[in-house]
Structures are given as structure tokens and as C-alpha cells.
Amino acid sequence: xxxxxxxxxxxxxxxxxxxxxxxxxxxxxxxxxxxxxxxxxxxxxxxxxxxxxxxxxxxxxxxxxxxxxxxxxxxxxxxxxxxxxxxxxxxxxxxxxxxxxxxxxxxxxxxxxxxxxxxxxxxxxxxxxxxxxxxxxxxxxxxxxxxxxxxxxxxxxxxxxxxxxxxxxxxxxxxxxxxxxxxxxxxxxxxxxxxxxxxxxxxxxxxxxxxxxxxxxxxxxxxxxxxxxxxxxxxxxxxxxxxxxxxxxxxxxxxxxxxxxxxxxxxxxxxxxxxxxxxxxxxxxxxxxxxxxxxxxxxxxxxxxxxxxxxxxxxxxxxxxxxxxxxxxxxxxxxxxxxxxxxxxxxxxxxxxxxxxxxxxxxxxxxxxxxxxxxxxxxxxxxxxxxxxxxxxxxxxxxxxxxxxxxxxxxxxxxxxxxxxxxxxxxxxxxxxxxxxxxxxxxxxxxxxxxxxxxxxxxxxxxxxxxxxxxxxxxxxxxxxxxxxxxxxxxxxxxxxxxxxxxxxxxxxxxxxxxxxxxxxxxxxxxxxxxxxxxxxxxxxxxxxxxxxxxxxxxxxxxxxxxxxxxxxxxxxxxxxxxxxxxxxxxxxxxxxxxxxxxxxxxxxxxxxxxxxxxxxxxxxxxxxxxxxxxxxxxxxxxxxxxxxxxxxxxxxxxxxxxxxxxxxxxxxxxxxxxxxx
Length: 678
Prior knowledge:
By secondary structure, the protein is α/β, with parallel strands linked by helices.
């Protein structure tokens, strides 16, 4: 997938067999006797792929320029002899104590000027020239030493870039921000125009006057905040590219990646922008145990990961076998939940299933985080389930390389997430993901697969396109969405979409500026709802969060007027449109002016599904999660994951891969079926 390098190494999948299985392996925490036992347990579990050396810099280079590779040589040799492939880390995710002591200027600084010290992890700023020099140094030493090692299949660059700290405010970061701005704008006049600095006397005479948007007496310039988000995402990826350049120089035939954190909680990094520099997308995902519908959030995150991957297979680099250690109440996973979670990721495009970590630590901050081998060892429920999962994944080898089948697209843009939630907006209750997640949930419960796509991505091939809270949008992206409708898709655009351009400048003439002509509506004024209040609708529904004064207006020539499908029914918006539909070419453009309650979401999705013609993967009982992956030769694999506590009916014919038997049409309570269709 690399777009930044002149040549791309062969895919990591060439070095792996079937659905890869394993996790983070931290042998430096254990004596040799335990490492030897690990090899036997890995064989029993069916482990084929491990990440190694992620947090090992302090042991590999215990003092500057002095190296100890003996333990790592032994570990890699033993893994290779066992037929296990390795994603070898650059070991740069936590600088050693000697480096911090010598160069405290590498430490991150927060918006209020606090210097974040050592004793944890990720205690460096990516813009530090000193840190980059040392990080590229250890990366080059590792690459030179292990470039021909038979275990090496993938480079694991750093770890979870942007975790804990994703924006940096030190002097070196400020200088890097200024250089980035100068390259982006070319002149200070262009920057002033973009940021609207005529407001509040914020005009700049030179780039040297600019600082990151730290703590200030009142709200900060939104253009400055948006650009700092862009810069912060870029700075982390530029650091990645620096290490990648070393690896390409030494090992041009070995692919590389870093583990992303795609989820409904991670917003600081523009992963669509990052994707072109990753040879394979890898993701870490953890459930929130307190969420009663955590499988729905998993589906959202896995679908979004696949979207970042452009539909290609991806690596689930980390998830947990059971409890984590960093939530308020760290409950274990229920029996069978680990299998359901793992196969849900596979169902949504993962061709590798990995965990943090192989063996549960006996010391350190994550000693209560679950692992493939728990504190109790081999004779535990978790390890038995790990062995069972390894067996299941071996049976799913035919699925590898297939792609998820979907006719529904949700438009997703990290920049819209950032811009829509910068302060000084009409309502603090408008959150970028909320409506999107509600619509995605309704589709998951109907067994309808969904792709996440960037606004600039091609939309041909989709029958239903959902555009939720796309606050800022370029002219080209707006035209792309309009073209999808005119080509035959059913397109839904929600409130607070198309309001500004990419500079966060209002599109004048009435909202939703970028989509007015497509939708045939004009909004003259927002009426955000107070917390806990609602708005009754003429179709019996209830709106929450948002309402607005909508007028049906003329749209593009020859496409007719918008039809009002529902109105607000209460003062001061009595009779004002809340849901409209307008013909657009051979498709249609719907506009939603409020956030429906759950029943309203269900009704809306039913109407959209009926008009667009999209359908469920199969008929099934409630509580069954359905997806289909299809190979290039047309073979379909239906994943049926039963989240209920009762046996469930699924109407699909074929061979069930986990049992090897003809599928009976029933999935046991809490179970999974993967059916190779006839």
C-alpha cells in the first residue's frame, strides 16, 4: 500500500500461512527456562506469528553504543526453528533512562507547559531531532543485524503512535509547526487569509510569530486549531517515515507497518492519510467491558479499519484474551467471547489475529492485563480457549485473501471529526460519531455490511451512501457525493454537513452550503436542542440533539423539488421540514435535520434500505451478526456470530468450516459458524 516509497516490498502475506495467529511476545521479561516452555505452549496453541522487541531498547542498548543482542538472537533462532514468523519491532516506543538523562529535551510538553517525564512509555516528542537521531540509530543496528534472519516477516515500527500523547507543545514542536505551516501556505498572507486573523486582531507579520494553540484566555482560533491537528497527525507519521527510510535502505524486501488504534475513541491521527505509507494495515482494538453492546463497537472499529486498508486484508495486531487493566472495572470476557471477538474481526477483513500479549506479566503496569498464557498457566479457561481459537483459525485458511462484500458506504473523514468538535460550535452535544454509530448499529443488526470510505474515494458500486455530520468538506468531495446520487445511489446527508470548506470558512448563502443544490433545501438558522429535550415529528418520531429552520428550495436544474417526508410539529418550527427526499439523476438525495431517537433510526434505515435495494447477508434470527467475505473467484464465506444465549437460525447453504460438516442452519448459543457457500 505504500505510496511514499519508490518501490514496495512483497506483501507480508507471502511469508505467512492461512489466518496468522499469535501476539506480542516479550521474552526479555522471563528466564530461559520459561522461554523454552513458551515454545512448547506456542506449538500447542498453533501460534504462527509474533511481534517481538517492542519495549526492549533499554536491554538491547543498556548504555549508549553498548549492545546486548544475545537474548534476542536466541529467541529469534528458536522461533524460526519452530516455524514461527516475527514482526520485529524497532524498539523505539520507550526511550531508555540513559537517553532521557542525557537529553531531557526529548520529553513531551503539554499545552499548559507541563513536561511529561519518564517512568512510563511514549515519553518523547516525534519532532525532536535528537530523538530521531537515536531512534534511527537503534533501528539501523537492528535492521543490519537481522536483515537476513529467517524469522523476519515484517517490521513493527515503534508502537501505537499517538497513544497517551498525540499533540506536542515544546519549543522544537513549535518550530516544526511553523515549518509545516510555511510549506503548506507558502506565505504569511495566505495563512492570515485561511485563519481569518482579521478577527480579534490575530494578524501575523511572519511565521516566527506563530505558536501552537496552547492555553489561552478564551477560545482559540479554529483555523489554527484545525491546522495544529493536521500537523500533529503529520508529525507522528513523518517520524514513522524517518524510521521507515532506514528500514527501506537496509531491508527493501521486508514490508513494514505500525499498529494503529482505529476505534470509536481514537481521533487524533488521520489514518486515511497514513495508510499510503503502511505496507499492511495493522490495528489494536480493545473492548469497553461496561458496554452492553460492545460487539457493535467492535464491528464499527473493524469496518473502519478495513476502510483505512482500502478493503484489503489487515492484521489485528492486538486485542485481549480477557480483561484489560486500564478501565475502571476490568471484567473478564465471558466464556466463548474471545472466539466471537476474534472471528468478528476476521469476518470484517482481518487475516491475522494477535493479542497483547503471549504470557501475562508478573510485574509492571500491565501485570493484570490478560494474555494468551495467564498467570495460572496452561490449566486455565483462557489458555484452553486460546488453543481452541488456534484450531479454529487453521480451519479458516480458505478465507484468507478474500474481501468483505458491501453495498453500503459511510463517508468518514478525520478532519471533519476534528473540525466539528473544535469549540465555539452551536451545540456541545453534536458529536461527529454519534449519528454515524447509530446508523451503523442499525445496519449491523440487520445483517447488512458497511464500508467506511473517505469523502474523496470512489463511491461507484454503492447503492446506499450515508453522510453524517460532514461539517467541513472540499468542493471536490461534495461533487463526488453528489455524483453518487446522480449515478443511482440513495444518499442521506445529515444536519451539520457541508457547513464550511477545508479552511473552516462558512459557505455563505444558507446551510448546508456544499450540499444545497443536491438536496434542494436551505437552512436559515440552527435550533440546537437543550440537553434532555426533544422535538416531536409529524411521522410520530422524535428528534434529539438538533433541529433547524429548513426551507425547501430550488436545487439543480431538471431534478425537481424536494419532497417533505416529515416535519417538526412544535413551536417555533411547527411545519418546518425535518426529513426530505429529492430525486437526483437516477438516484436520490435525502436530508435529515435532526437526530432521531432509536425507533426513529430504525424506521429511517428501513426506508433507506428499501429504496436502495440493499439486503442482509442472509435471513437469520435476532442476535446473529452476519458478514460475507468473497474470493476473487466468487466463493462466498458467510460468518454467523451468535451473540444471544439461545440457538439461532441462519438461512444459508454450504459447508461449515469449523466443523467440516454440512451446515445445519443453526448456530448454537454464543457460537460461531463460518459457511463456505454452495
